[in-house]
């Protein structure tokens, strides 16, 4: 079936094309043209709305009133993915935060099962349990563990056909542990860490390629000690992801960090269950978390993930920092695809790519997605 999305402005991931059309054949992009073909099976006039590659979020703890830790099932993964599609996020890595090893294995099995029917589930992200007790955030201290063989087995329990990210504190990983994970195809990130600059150098040498929610729950950059933050921003081989909700980071701090990290910086949400859901509060282990003015917080005011979606994160970059719209969109699609090693099939609008697309107005409010061969209205 040939479908034409016409009369739209297209952010391809490398350029911006005005008043062009996207030609799709059976859900695959066939061409981008200023002259739509005659004889298409379906022509959709987008009325000068914009189209960009579908957003990719590699840190999604929950959505649709579901947390992966609480519902590590195939159905739970599908609910989380569907909630984020409302906001233009077509591809996710459901994230299991520090918890029991059997929960990690169940989450991996659930993601593997969901991937068979949902091409937007790219794999799994394990955030913990090898994290610093000094940088827990709201992670449950009872489940923090050493980097041993049992943890390694849980980290590598998901199918190698999908992507696995492990966030850990590099100062707590014994020599060879990170390299061993990398040899099994795992992408290793530094996070919830009290690492020194020297600790980070050792981690980079073994295979760390990402900083998870940089600045949050990690040793800071100071005048005499770079900490994890300084080491990540300075290393040309490391990617950095950021939560652009105005609560995790002041927008001025974020602006400086993006300039330092460019073009290795991209967006994540660290989203919790309220995103795309109906409930304004949830439980995280023993903690009651409430959304107050868009901020997920415990009773003592501690941040507990976010209520952020990626469309809002992109909009914040444009409106609060002045990032050009095309670059902000790349931070939600092209760059995370490249980090994952999926730049050949995600994050661009180009011939041969699956048509995972976000459709939005000039203010980046998403009204529809094209996903899995279907145009889906989201608002």
TrEMBL record:
Transmembrane segments: none annotated. Its cofactor is a divalent metal cation. One of its GO terms (biological process) is N-acetylglucosamine catabolic process. Residues 51-363 form the Amidohydrolase-related domain. InterPro entries: Amidohydro-rel, GlcNAc_6-P_deAcase, Metal-dep_hydrolase_composite, Metal_Hydrolase. Zn(2+) binds at residues 127, 192, 213. SUPFAM superfamilies: Composite domain of metallo-dependent hydrolases, Metallo-dependent hydrolases. Keywords: Carbohydrate metabolism, Hydrolase, Metal-binding. Binds 1 divalent metal cation per subunit. The active site is at residue 270. The keyword Metal-binding applies. One of its GO terms (molecular function) is N-acetylglucosamine-6-phosphate deacetylase activity. It is an enzyme of class 3 (hydrolase). NCBIfam families: nagA. Belongs to the metallo-dependent hydrolases superfamily. NagA family. This is N-acetylglucosamine-6-phosphate deacetylase. It comes from Nocardioides marinus.
């Amino acid at each position: 079936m040939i479908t034409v999305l016409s009369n739209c402005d297209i952010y391809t991931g490398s350029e911006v094309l005005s008043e062009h059309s996207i030609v799709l054949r059976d859900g695959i992009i066939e061409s981008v043209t200023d002259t739509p073909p005659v004889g298409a099976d379906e022509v959709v006039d987008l009325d000068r709305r914009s189209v960009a590659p579908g957003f990719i979020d590699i840190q999604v703890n929950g959505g649709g009133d579901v947390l992966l830790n609480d519902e590590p099932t195939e159905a739970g993964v599908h609910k989380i993915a569907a909630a984020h599609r409302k906001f233009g996020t077509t591809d996710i890595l459901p994230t299991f935060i520090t918890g029991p090893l059997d929960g990690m294995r169940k989450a991996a099995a659930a993601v593997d099962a969901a991937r068979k029917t949902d091409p937007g589930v790219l794999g799994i992200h394990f955030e913990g349990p090898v994290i610093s007790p000094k940088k827990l955030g709201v992670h449950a201290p009872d489940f923090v563990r050493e980097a041993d063989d049992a943890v390694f087995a849980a980290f590598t329990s998901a199918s190698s056909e999908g992507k696995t990210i492990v966030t850990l504190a590099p100062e707590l990983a014994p020599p060879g542990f990170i390299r061993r994970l990398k040899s099994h195809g795992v992408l290793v990130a530094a996070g919830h860490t009290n690492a020194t600059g020297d600790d980070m150098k050792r981690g980079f040498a073994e295979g760390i390629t990402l900083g998870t929610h940089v600045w949050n729950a990690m040793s800071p950059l100071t005048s005499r000690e770079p900490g994890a933050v300084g080491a990540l921003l300075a290393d040309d081989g490391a990617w950095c992801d950021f939560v652009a909700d105005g609560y995790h980071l002041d927008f001025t701090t974020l602006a400086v960090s993006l300039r330092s990290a460019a073009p290795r910086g991209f967006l994540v949400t660290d989203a919790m269950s309220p995103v795309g859901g109906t409930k304004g509060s949830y439980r995280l282990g023993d903690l009651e978390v409430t959304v107050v003015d868009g901020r997920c917080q415990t009773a003592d005011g501690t941040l507990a993930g976010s209520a952020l979606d990626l469309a809002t994160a992109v909009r914040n970059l444009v409106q609060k920092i002045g990032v050009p719209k095309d670059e902000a969109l790349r931070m939600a699609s092209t760059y995370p695809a490249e980090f994952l090693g999926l730049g050949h099939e995600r994050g661009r609008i180009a011939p041969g790519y699956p048509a995972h697309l976000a459709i939005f107005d000039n203010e980046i409010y998403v009204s529809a997605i094209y996903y899995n061969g279907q145009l889906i209205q989201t608002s």
